[in-house]
Amino acid sequence: MIKEVKTQVNVGVEVDVLWKAFGKDLKDIVPKMMPNLVKDADMLEGDGGLNTVYIFNFGPDIKTMTYQKERVTEFDEFVHRIGLEVIEGGHLNHGFSHYKTTFQFTSTGEQETLIDVTISYESQVEVDTMPSTLVFIKHMENYLMNGAT
């Protein structure tokens, strides 16, 4: 049975900058903002939009996984919504049969965005997957706020 966890996070980054970072620039930004967690990333298929497939090769601080492939299963530029589903490696090698993270970005001010995060997963064991997603968002916010794009 697929389960869902949801949360909201406010970040001090303009919605258009955040949208670009999570879309077209994701493969370039993630290794720069978290080099010990993700040593490199590549776009295997697509252009950053719907059905794009990314591979993230993990760095030295992740001891239990070597890589993870993710497919963009939702991509709506009008409402700034992107969904990334793990299709190989990573979480699927650690007890999950389904793992998808959806981000919805809503402008709440000139330099502020509300991020609605939904993680849907199927696993034989109960785990709290939200903390690692929140760390990822904070790394992204810090990276973008320091002028890197």
UniProtKB/TrEMBL annotation:
Instruction: Enumerate the CDD domains for this protein.
Output: Bet_v1-like
Matching entries from Gene3D superfamilies are given as: 3.30.530.20
Record key words, sorted: Pathogenesis-related protein, Plant defense
Which GO molecular function terms does the record list?
abscisic acid binding; protein phosphatase inhibitor activity; signaling receptor activity
User: Mind telling me which residue stretches traverse the membrane in this protein?
Assistant: none
The domain of life for this entry's organism is Eukaryota
UniProt cross-references to InterPro entries, sorted A to Z: Bet_v_I/MLP (IPR000916), Bet_v_I_allergen (IPR024949), Plant_def-hormone_signal (IPR050279), START-like_dom_sf (IPR023393)
The Bet v I/Major latex protein domain covers 3-134
Which processes are annotated in GO (biological process)?
Answer: abscisic acid-activated signaling pathway; defense response
Report the Pfam families cross-referenced here.
Answer: Bet_v_1 (PF00407)
GO CC terms, sorted: cytoplasm; nucleus
Which family does the record assign? Answer: Belongs to the BetVI family.
**This chain belongs to which protein, by name?**
Bet v I/Major latex protein domain-containing protein
**Source organism:** Salix viminalis (Common osier)
